[in-house]
């Protein structure tokens, strides 16, 4: 038996033993997602147990090095783990911006001490992170940000405001872009980490058209941040931020194969004698959409294989982000069409308690957050296609 | 299977692209058109392609081919889509070879496949009967040992040595059962071949069957669709690969053009109005490349490929349509001149989009395969 086959056998046995039965059912929306953190309200004992077991093994972050709390797995092993989890329909034990965004940036730009201090608590789901990038006057033009740091020797005093900070009100720490030099736009930004429990930090959730409030306004009023938590070089935070955004974009576009719309439509509307959806134009629209979805899913598979073969993704992630989010918006427009007036129920059984219309509205932000589709197109035009400015 | 080309396939890609760029650039197609060439392709080129092993890509090694399979043929078809090299490759090396491999007896394979693989024998398929692709709608009758009826859109039908004919031996047009494949020689008594000069400067033929001998049956009588459909699906995916080549080439040419062409004192490629469309176009080509590669790999892996074939053909048709339209628009007036090559690409694209089922045909079939 090859090493990989042996790994598969062991993994299968371990998952069989350790994954609680209730964690082998599909997550039913937001409430079943485990974000971890100091104040997280676990949905069940099983959810907590599953996170603890996977976290202790480093399998919440399978490819991170063991010394930083990861699983130390190779890409092939990580793929096997993912396959085996999928096989038993195991839920993801932990969803976290720490894993998805900060981790990769720390692994690349952090010092050994910074990695030791922050990565293991991310892996175990003990600290929940949020991202402080956008400001009221720095959206697509992110480098125009003005929240500033005053040098006080071993620490900075930070003043300013962030906006669109996802789950700031529920997060324990923040990774933040702060202006440390006002004379240079791009080369005057630093990437700093600090505790959201620090004095002077306050948050205010923003209610969205979906009725959800995933984003906050975040205010810093003389907040103390230690210099040992500045990642990379002073005034070179833009480099870290760009790298991190690449990961964020890849992540946004890596949502996994969604349930085909035709299945939702057939469940809802049935089929005619020919075995086809009774609404011809809807059938047409769904087919058109699913052709694009599957082509895109194969593209993500190809991108992963290319990366594995050593071909860097770089700005390619901008294309994945733009294409994936536009598709997701289309998907939810079609879900609304499939459900007809049932989709309008803000509360009620036919819309899964408002989830259909609320999720539809939530997807409108997909092509705005993490850099708008238009910004991604600018990046593709310049960095992939080499078009002149 | 990893969705990247292996070393052997990468080498094939490089050698095919180099070969067609050097030996059969688009100027050759232009010359064939302007000279009203009798055959519509260069016999010398076909000879060289055969020596390169291209004619035998889809033929297994036991029958004298190179056994590269669909991924290999797709790589070469994509390269041909970039240069629009004219040859009986698609008609014979892809379609003829696939159908014979799927339908013929061991004896027939031994007689035909080596000659196809060496390029000596050109075999095509007579399938469509109306302006729409509809295999089950076949009406051409095989009865009393004779074939009677009409076929159209037969690729390279004017130069084929043998024609595979889909004929109805029982049932009614629209029935899946009751169809059979026959092999007919060029020059058979009662077979009238009318060459059609196609807008893409390639050729197809209308064939009239007036009591042609139905002597040689390929496969089981009445059950042609069981073997023809999977064979056709392989061909559809390779047509999709050629469409991908068309899309890729028109894109690259256009990107070069908008970097150079100046208006208002700056390259027009600096305008966001074009940049964003270019970015979207790039994305469509990328996802098409994935759909095509996936389908090619699945075709080589065996099993039911209907869903993959329709996905790839539909997506490639749509993207090639977008690509050829955008290429002309971004080239402005130059795009609609015959002096510029884009006309060749848009014409070829539309013919390939239609061949073996267009976007609508395959989107519909994709839905049907998915159970709606």
Structural write-up:
The complex is a heterodimer of chains A (389) and B (372). With 389 residues, chain A is α+β, with helices and mostly antiparallel strands. Chain A folds into 3 domains: 3-95, Butyryl-Coa Dehydrogenase, subunit A, domain 1, CATH 1.10.540; 129-237, Butyryl-CoA Dehydrogenase, subunit A, domain 2 (Beta Barrel), CATH 2.40.110.10; 253-384, Up-down Bundle (Butyryl-CoA Dehydrogenase, subunit A, domain 3). Chain A is 43% helix and 14% strand. Chain A has helices at residues 3-18, 45-57, 75-87, 97-109, 112-123, 237-252, 261-269, 280-308, 316-339, 355-363, 373-384, and strands spanning 129-132, 148-151, 155-166, 173-179, 189-195, 201-206, 215-226, 230-231. In chain A, the strands form 2 sheets. A 4-stranded mixed beta sheet of chain A has the order 1-4-5-8. In chain A, strand 6 (201-206) and strand 7 form a beta hairpin. In chain A, helix 4 packs antiparallel against helix 6, helix 8 runs antiparallel to helix 9 (316-339) and helix 9 runs antiparallel to helix 11 (373-384). The longest helix of chain A has 29 residues, at 280-308. Chain A is globular and about 75 Å long. Chain A starts with a helix and ends in a 5-residue tail after the last helix. Chain B is α+β, with helices and mostly antiparallel strands and 372 residues long. Chain B has 3 domains: 7-117, Orthogonal Bundle (Butyryl-Coa Dehydrogenase, subunit A, domain 1); 123-222, Butyryl-CoA Dehydrogenase, subunit A, domain 2; 225-369, Butyryl-CoA Dehydrogenase, subunit A, domain 3 (Up-down Bundle), CATH 1.20.140.10. In chain B, helix 1 (7-23) runs parallel beside helix 4 (69-83), helix 7 packs antiparallel against helix 8 (272-301) and helix 9 (306-331) packs antiparallel against helix 11. The radius of gyration of chain B is 20 Å and the shape is globular. The mean pLDDT of chain B is 97.
């Amino acid at each position: 038996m090859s090493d990989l086959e042996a790994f598969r056998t062991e993994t299968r046995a371990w998952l069989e033993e350790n994954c609680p039965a209730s964690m082998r059912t599909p997550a039913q929306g937001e409430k079943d997602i485990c974000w971890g953190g100091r104040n997280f309200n676990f949905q069940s004992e099983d959810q907590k147990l599953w996170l603890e077991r996977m976290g202790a093994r480093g399998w919440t972050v399978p490819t991170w090095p063991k010394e930083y709390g990861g699983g130390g797995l190779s890409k092939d092993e990580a793929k096997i783990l993912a396959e085996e989890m999928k096989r038993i329909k195991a839920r993801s034990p932990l969803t976290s911006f720490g894993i998805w965004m900060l981790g990769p940036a720390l692994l690349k730009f952090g010092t050994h001490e910074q990695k030791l201090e922050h990565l293991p608590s991310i892996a175990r789901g003990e600290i929940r992170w949020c991202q402080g990038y956008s400001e009221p006057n720095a959206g697509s033009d992110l480098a125009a940000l003005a929240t500033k740091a005053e040098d006080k020797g071993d620490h900075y005093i930070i003043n300013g405001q962030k906006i669109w900070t996802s789950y700031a009100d529920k997060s324990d720490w923040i990774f933040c872009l702060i202006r440390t030099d006002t004379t240079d736009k791009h080369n005057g930004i630093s990437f700093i980490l600090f505790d959201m429990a620090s004095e002077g930090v306050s948050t205010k959730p923003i209610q969205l058209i979906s009725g959800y409030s995933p984003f906050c306004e975040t205010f810093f009023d003389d907040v103390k941040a230690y210099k040992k938590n500045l990642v990379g070089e002073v005034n070179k935070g833009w480099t870290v931020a760009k790298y991190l955004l690449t990961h964020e974009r890849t992540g946004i576009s890596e949502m996994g194969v969604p349930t085909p719309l035709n299945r939702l439509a057939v469940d809802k509307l049935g089929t005619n004698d020919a075995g086809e959806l009774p609404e011809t134009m809807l059938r047409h629209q769904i087919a058109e959409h699913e052709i694009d979805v599957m082509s895109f899913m194969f593209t993500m598979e190809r991108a992963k294989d290319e990366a594995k073969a050593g071909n860097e993704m770089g700005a390619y992630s901008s294309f994945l982000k733009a294409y994936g989010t536009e598709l997701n918006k289309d998907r939810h427009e079609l879900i609304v069409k499939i459900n007809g007036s049932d989709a309008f129920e803000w509360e009620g059984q036919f819309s899964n308690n408002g989830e259909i219309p609320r999720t539809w509205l939530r997807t409108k932000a997909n092509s705005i957050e993490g850099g708008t589709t238009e910004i991604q197109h600018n990046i593709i035009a310049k960095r992939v296609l080499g078009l002149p400015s | 299977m990893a969705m990247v080309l292996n070393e052997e396939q990468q080498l094939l890609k490089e050698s095919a692209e180099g070969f067609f760029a050097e030996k059969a650039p688009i100027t050759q197609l232009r010359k064939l058109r302007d000279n009203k060439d009798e055959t519509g392709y260069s016999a010398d080129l076909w000879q060289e392609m055969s020596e390169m092993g291209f004619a035998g890509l889809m033929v297994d090694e036991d029958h004298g081919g190179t056994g590269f399979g669909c991924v290999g043929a797709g790589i070469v078809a994509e390269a041909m889509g970039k240069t629009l090299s004219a040859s009986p490759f698609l008609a014979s090396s892809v379609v003829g070879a696939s159908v014979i491999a799927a339908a013929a007896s061991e004896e027939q394979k031994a007689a035909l496949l080596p000659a196809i693989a060496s390029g000596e024998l050109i075999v095509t398929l007579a399938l469509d009967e109306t302006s729409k692709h509809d295999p089950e709608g076949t009406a051409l009758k095989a009865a009393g040992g004779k074939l009677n009826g009409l076929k159209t859109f037969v690729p390279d039908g004017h130069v084929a040595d043998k024609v595979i004919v889909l004929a109805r031996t029982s049932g009614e047009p629209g029935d899946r059962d009751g169809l059979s494949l026959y092999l007919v020689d060029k020059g058979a008594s009662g077979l009238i071949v009318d060459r059609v000069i196609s807008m893409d400067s390639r050729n197809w033929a209308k064939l009239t069957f007036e009591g042609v001998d139905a002597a040689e049956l390929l496969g089981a009588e009445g059950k042609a669709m069981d073997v023809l459909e999977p064979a056709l699906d392989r061909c559809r995916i390779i047509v999709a690969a050629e469409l991908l080549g068309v899309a890729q080439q028109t894109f690259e040419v256009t990107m070069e053009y908008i970097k150079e062409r100046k208006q208002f004192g700056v390259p027009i490629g600096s305008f966001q109005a074009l940049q964003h469309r270019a970015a979207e176009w790039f994305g469509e080509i990328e996802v098409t490349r994935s759909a095509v590669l996936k389908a090619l790999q699945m075709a080589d892996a065996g099993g039911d490929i209907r869903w993959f074939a329709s996905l790839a053909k539909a997506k490639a048709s749509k993207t090639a349509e977008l690509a050829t339209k955008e290429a002309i628009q971004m080239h402005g007036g130059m795009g609609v001149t015959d002096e510029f090559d884009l006309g060749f690409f848009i014409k070829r694209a539309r013919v390939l989009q239609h061949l073996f089922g267009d976007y609508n045909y395959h989107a519909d079939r994709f839905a049907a395969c998915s159970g709606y």
